[in-house]
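Section 3.1: Structural characterization of target chains.
Under the original work plan, the team committed to producing a structural model for every single-chain target entering the pipeline before any wet-lab resources were allocated. The record below documents one such target. The sequence was received from the expression subgroup and is listed exactly as submitted; it comprises 178 residues.
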Amino acid sequence: MNRIDGYAQGIFEIARAEGSLESVENELFQFSQLFQGNEQLRERLTDQSLPVEKRQAIVEDLLGQRVHPLTVSLISFLVGSGRARDVPTIVDRLVERAAAERQHEVAEVRSAIPLDDEQRRRLTEALQRATGKQVELKVIVDPSVLGGLVARVGDTIIDGTVRHRLEQLQDSLRGSTR
């Protein structure tokens, strides 16, 4: 087991033992998305010239009372251990481990806008029908999508974005002019 998997497994076991696996998993996923999308945060939390206590204080200030205390502690631990750069990979492995424990696969969905509960429910059902697998939805709001959705379940990618549809239309128009 490599170091990343070891951290993911340890976090999984701690959150499960505390009875807060689902909420901590979701909060870690959201933090991971924030971390990946915010260059300034990434630079501050990975800056080895800043004392560990200062980097951990940034985590505390950012998350404080807004998330489960265990989530704050786990992120603070990773930052303090010099593993801030690995947070997205560790969280991805944690999410996969948690989904596998529930005998589900992770469906990572990118959307230009947040999805409401009804949209999430319908999308989950559609992805389960399309893939034949039980899925857990993890939605990433990604303005570069422009419109529609792109979903990844394991090795399967379903691209229903406006951009993809326009490319398909353009390809078919090229084919008809030959």
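Residues 3-97 form a domain with the Peroxidase; domain 1 fold (CATH 1.10.520.20).
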